Fold this protein.
Amino acid sequence: MVTVGGFFRVVACTTVLAGAMVVVPAESAGAVVAIAPTITEDIVDPNDGETSLREAFSLAAGQFGDVQVNLGDDDYELTRCGPATEDLNASGDLDIVGFGTSLTITGTGSITNTCADRGLIQISRAGAVTISGLELSGGQTVSQVMPWTSPSGTTDSVLYGSPVTVMAHDVVLEGLDVHDNTVAGAGAVVAVTTWASALLPDGVVELRDVEIHSNIGGGFHAWSNGMGGVLAVIEDSDISDNITGADHGVPQSWAAGAAVLGFSLVTVSDSVVSGNTVEPVDSSFQTGGLLFAGFGDVEVTGTEIHNNAGGVGGLLATHSTDPLDPTLDIHDTDIRGNLGTLVGGAWIGADLVRASDTTVSLNTQDGDPALPGAGGLAVTGRHLNLERLEVTDNHGQVGGASVWGDEQITLRDSTFEDNDGDRLGGAVLSQNGWDPGAVVVERTRFSRNTTTGAGSTGIGGASISAHGSVSIVDSTVARNSGDALGGLSVSSAIDRALLVRSTLNHNSASGPDGVGALLGGDGDVRLIDTTVTNNTADGVGGVRVGQEADHVGLYHSTITWNTGNVEVTGPARTESWSTVIGVPRPGTSNCVGVVHYNGSANYDTDGTCNWRSGQDVSGGPNPRLGPLRDNGGEVRTRLPDPASPLLDVLSAQSPACGGFAANGVQRDDPNGCDIGAAERP
């Protein structure tokens, strides 16, 4: 290693600094040149036998090989306030511009700017740049505009010239504390991958163990200059309490607390992004917290995204589904307390979206009521896989989540609870591509969601639809309330909507002619081993099948104690097997408009269901169902008591026996099986 300080003689080359010669030694090829200041005063004097911080940066700028600048634990103040455009370290910020291979700047002290309209560090280098361990504060700059064209062809502008700007092939920032800087531009820290070539095609930006906080003009911006940025990493970092937006000189649409643009892979792990704000919000794409835009994959794990505010409050990551089929993964992440004009919590979109073990709570959409946004979560893309999500206490046009998939939506083991929406409380899940795709919901709970909307948009629990098929299995829709519909709307345009081993209970609709529990729309609607109970409405509390449906199937289901149990308003044909309908709530009936064409071994209590088989019971006594409770299985059920007329009605050889009831009991009793969703052991 070659050491450069205040007393070295000339060995190889010189750099002009403030009109004088500064000695720079050079030794064997491949050696690392080490430079260390010897004084902390902000001076330039080549004749004093010392090396100031400015002189150390000038020495580094003159090197074409590997350079290490060690600042130790000293604190430095930049007090030479010369021209803003000065790039030779005579005054203003600290500059290193050149074609050297690698540059490392390290220390455990601080650099503070004391000059108006001057930054801290500006570096442009061909190789790799690492800055570590320093506290950087007091920078004041006006960024310059750089055109940036996204992979989809959209032209925008991004800004550079921030208090800390690093442009290099590889940029590594670690262990920094960057705070109380002001920039009319992109952010306190800007990192750009550049200088890509055939020999060095893929640039990297890494942010590790860094705090970027309390800056005006934004926190962190990183982008690839379009020549091959491959990887951006944010790890163990805290980006908090930064302010950006037009009020702070940042008019571009990509304003954000932290923005990462144009990389082929972005990973964020074990980090905190909180309290960042866009003021005012001029575009829905301005993001309080994290913004990712480009063509590549995104991974977010173990990260807290809290209390940010913007067009999208917490996280915006939407990539085109073509032509590179990007993937977006979010795992073990907490998105909480964010505020957005379009989406409060997060808007994520890609060809393939995978979200799991993530909490989305206490987020709010507060903007133009005409915007079809969401309080908690918006998800768009071709294939959407959502597992173990907790979406709670959010508010917006859609309170909990708005999920739109071109081909496949899969939702498993999740909870949507206590969300409040102006149009819909819990969630919208819609497979809206022209291809016959599918929506699959398994072991998921929609509960205590509400809506203040009136008319057809006032749905409390969830709206689930597909051009292809809908399957809702082992799931619960409970205690939701809305104007038009309390619980669940399902429809399938060309296939079927299935509810299997699920329970809809205590949902309510307050509007005129509302529906309490279930509204069936297009195509074929089928309930299998499903319980619908204790739902209320001005219209029908239980199940209403609309004009567009062509078939209704009720199989081993229990529909009881609703304000009206089943209503078919259109021409749909109905078949029922081993289903109990009744008792209805006082003043209402079990069946309205139901025309059965097939079925057997059914039971009603008022003779209104028009059964067709001799094994059906029409106008029977109270079926003696127990209370709704945990009787086994994934959902709560109403088990027939020991004296119920529903027990062992079907022959063990009947095709309607077999399989498992909703309470997890196998229907294999040689004495026969029971009518309804639950089988008595």
User: Anything to note?
Assistant: The two ends are 81 Å apart (CA to CA). Residues 53-61 form the longest helix (9 residues).
